[in-house]
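TL;DR need structure tokens for one chain.
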Amino acid sequence: MRNYIKLKIILILLFFLFSSHSATSKETTKNILYVGGSGEGNFTSISDALMEAKDGYTIFVYKGIYKENIIISKRIRLVGEEKETTVIDGRKEGNVIHVTANGVSIERFTIRNSSYVLEEKEPEDKQGAKVPSEGITKVNKTTILERNLTTAGILVEANHVNISDCIIEDCQLSIVLRKAENCSVENCKINAKKLPKTIGLGIYGSKAVRILNCNISFCSIGLDAMWIDFLEISRNNLFSNLYAGISLQISSNCTVHHNTIYGSKTGAGVRGECKNVLFYDNNFIGNEISAVDYCNATWDNGVVGNYWDDYNGTDANGDGIGDEPYVIPGLMIARDYHPLMKKVNLTSPISITISYPEEGSTVFGVIKVKGYATCKEGIKEVSVRIDNGSWIRANGTSEWSVEIDVSKYDQGKHTLEVRAISNDNKFASTKIDFWIKKKSTPSPSLIICILAILFITLLLRKKKR
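>> reply
TL;DR here they are.
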């Protein structure tokens, strides 16, 4: 009888050991933290959740107003419930969000009220042309210019960072990328609300940056870039920015296409020894000066140029291309040799469908991501990436697929993005959210516990006999 009681106690202890192992296992696989809302254990501030988070975590923030200043020093996804009602308010105290870790993604927020401290300067560039004075400092004898970066809605000093579907307002510098590589800003709305000395999107000392599908308005300078190598500015609307819609200085390998630049003193300005800068398929409308060029940029791609609302040339053969070049003022007297007679249609002609995985589905192991892409001109390339990782080229074009081993990624919620490029070099992308679940492998301690329970059970049965 005593032996039976002892064995029973051992079984109970083993049960608790097994339960403890299960709880520990559950905790280590959890990689989504929640802020706000009514869930038990949810954090009340984003900063507290960031303290708890580890690399690879997702922090999901329910709608509400969060008055805090955030430093992101871990590789995480910060996702708002919806961008209009999930607000991070910096209370005019420094940067609202400061990103210092690589591989960060920020999605679906309203960011507002960074602090406001720009000095007023009145420099000239080395060609003697006046330059807007908002927060600019001369730094050497040739008067190369540097923005006096102080505080921003989002300041990024890291690589592989993606900012998407956000609203930035009431910030002196809305989004700043400084010494950043392989970063993108997509589908964002930036509005400085006519505050003086403001920059909508500033990119400095960076490499391989893409600005896509953004609306930037009511800033002193809409998009300001200096010391950049490889920059793409595409499908953006820049309107009612006081001094300039786009300003490029001392940069190389920049492509600006399929944008509308409206209602500025200067639509686009290129200065300071820029190299390999290309503008095409842009609309320049309602600017006092459509563009200035001190670097001999290229203003057409050899087939099409840009639409200029002050172009007075003719189109004798009706091919939609002006017969006389459009002259861009500046030191080099640059020309658009293929000016467009009609506005560029900025609606994406490419349709992308992801057939697998489905939105919100759960997958594990090796999966085949697949779908369709269509375009009147035809598709020449489809690529896929998870979160903000490297692009993986898919097999096929109109019907495409690619195998991905998702077990290499952390368990939890992820974003799948598919990008298609047409034969005439237009592109579009689409995204879905999905979940990754890892197959659980029993640990050695768990196997030992199960074997011990089986052994003791058999021993008890034998004793009863």
